[in-house]
Specification:
The protein is an alpha+beta fold. It contains 4 helices and 21 strands. The protein is globular and about 55 Å long. It starts with 7 loop residues before the first helix and ends with a helix.
């Protein structure tokens, strides 16, 4: 959402500075998986791994674009399909997720006025079996919150129950809102607050539904999902990005993919440590090292840190690059705070 960080150039400079820290240089942190090359995708605000097409990620722009959803090939960074939602005039699309039935859910849930819209919407349609430009009919759901209007940028569909959740975005901390067991296209769907969450720009469930990750601009939090509620499991680092507003699990559940707004934006892959893996994902065998005697016939080695492998990469990110990242985050936080302050001043003048 452009209103929150008007200093994208400064943030990009900080991102370059972070790329030069020891962790990035050694390949122990997240790595760039692909770069979105489509010039039409300038404000990617959501990310979802395809269920039908391996290596394909669905994304969209936020306010200012039409009723479009894009399929991007992670092997090339190119758009392989643009889906147009028929009869839809989106206001501020901020999130995308895939349900257990294979349907895509698109969250028109943003609110640049910090909670002025009485209602927001969710659009739903089956994930296309063939990747080509097309126009589709959608089911539209009207959403309200039990505590009044909220600004939100994260919408997640639980992959086992199909229940939809929305995380509101608030500088001092937001809330996680649970939708009805089944959304209705004929009446208003009231989402009820079930938990407190930090400042959230996107979120995603793991493919098996046992983990929920909520990200912000500077960090992410992983939760264990049990009994229809989250319990905090771990704090996760996120790569330094100009305006990070997308996250999704890879289809195998072993890593997170982080997206950002901006032209030619990079999508990063961050492997999860063994302790952070979803319940259904077994740890990889220990990596064989020369002279260790463990690289015998039939031994399987984990991917190297530079290739985005789990375990070593995730652990290294929190150690080797901590100093450089702390400096970058501090400067970025100052930039964001300044931007928010200018925004408030402009509002007062307009009022």
């Amino acid at each position: 959402m452009r209103a929150y960080i008007p200093t994208a150039a400064a943030c990009a400079a900080l991102a370059l500075a972070w790329a030069g820290t020891p962790a990035a240089a050694l390949g122990t942190g997240p790595t760039v998986a692909f770069t979105i090359s489509d010039p039409r995708i300038a404000e990617a605000s959501g990310l979802a791994a395809s269920r039908l097409h391996p290596g394909i990620y669905w994304t969209h722009n936020d306010s200012g674009d039409g009723p479009y959803v894009y399929a991007v090939d992670s092997a090339t960074g190119r758009t392989v399909a643009r889906v147009t939602m028929r009869g839809i005039h989106p206001r501020d699309v901020e999130a995308i997720s895939i349900g257990p039935d294979g349907d895509l859910y698109v969250g028109d849930i943003g609110d640049n006025l910090d909670g002025a819209w009485k209602e927001v919407w969710i659009y739903r349609f089956p994930e296309p079996k063939e990747l080509r430009d097309r126009t589709v009919d959608v089911t539209r759901y009207t959403v309200r919150y039990d505590q009044g209007p909220r600004n939100a940028e994260a919408m997640m569909v639980q992959p086992k129950t199909g229940r939809v959740y929305i995380a509101s975005k608030k500088q001092s901390g937001g809330g996680l809102y649970q939708g009805p067991a089944h959304l209705s296209a004929h009446e208003v769907n009231t989402f009820r607050r079930i938990a407190d969450v930090p400042w959230v720009t996107d979120g995603a469930f793991s493919p098996d539904g046992s983990r929920l990750v909520l990200r912000g601009y500077f960090s992410a939090t992983e939760y264990r999902w049990t009994g229809g509620a989250p319990s905090k499991l771990a704090d996760l680092d996120v790569p330094m990005q100009p305006q990070g507003e997308g996250v999704t699990f890879t289809s195998d559940g072993r890593a997170l993919m982080y997206g950002s707004e901006g032209h030619s934006s990079k999508v990063w892959r961050a492997p999860l440590a063994d302790s952070q893996l979803p319940d259904s994902v077994p740890p990889l065998p220990p990596k064989a090292t020369p002279g260790s005697g463990t690289a015998g016939k039939g031994a399987t080695a984990t991917p190297s840190a530079s290739a985005g492998g789990a375990g070593a990469g995730a652990a290294g990110q929190g150690s080797g690059g901590a100093g450089g990242k702390a400096v970058g985050l501090g400067a970025l936080a100052v930039a964001v705070a300044a931007g928010l302050g200018l925004r408030r001043v402009r509002r007062r003048r307009r009022g």
